[in-house]
Structure prediction request, 308 residues.
Amino acid sequence: MQPVIEVKDLCKTYQDGLKALDCITLDVHRGEILALLGPNGAGKTTLISIICGIVSPTSGSVTVDGRDIITDYRFTRQMIGLVPQELTLGTFDLVRNTVCFSRGLFGKRSNPAYVDDLLRDLSLLNKKDQEVRTLSGGMKRRVLIAKALAHEPRVLFLDEPTAGVDVELRKDMWDIVRRLRESGVTIILTTHYIEEAEEIADRVGVINRGRLLLVEEKHMLMRKLGKKRLTVQLKEPIARIPESLSSYDLDLAADGSEIILTYDIRSSRTRITALLQDIKNAGMTLKDLNTSQSSLEEIFVSLVKEEA
Prediction:
């Protein structure tokens, strides 16, 4: 199946010499949720802006549903909905009116039933006749999503969709994104919240300094790059790790009650069995054991550090 978005050798250099994008190649699968992670200034918003036709590329190409974003701009722009970072809304606009206006901008016929269903799905129907200025920040962000979906796009870009949103509302937003994906909408989101990508994304891309470091299925990424920790809880705290255990890469908890072994889950020899025996031989008594896998946040941080 052809990807819904194909980005090939995309570069963007601004007049001041800043290279915002450095030959990025990316395929976005139809119906997936792709999370793009990266620090401030990494190039995430520039990439989105080019695909949406807001910024012109220096070189390279982008197609949406097989059509070039420059030569078939009208078609590709109708395929896309964009929720920007900024709360760009008319202060005195009524909620329903501003959504209907966005629909009309794309030449779509009036469809009050669709707009009402959209507002209902976003928990905005009871606020449809309110002025935008009276809404909370979280509700305004929902209005932005409604405006982006007003013309029934098949691809939705969410640029930092939960920035400044409280934890409870953030989880509501995740539910909204999942429902959109179930309806067949392809979703690309940028986020600073690693747990957001870990919670809802199918694939994760990491951008830093204008370069796409990797794009990988979330679970595959964590399996390939993640590490596991074995935490050995001791019955009696120790002041330092015995010399007999120096061949292991161990850390000691601050209070001396735990020994931590970090190991690569891909390795055929984790040495866990030998470690436990050597701990016993050193005269220490085990109280408990537990394992944990590195989070997506730790993987992200390590990738960005390697690139620095």
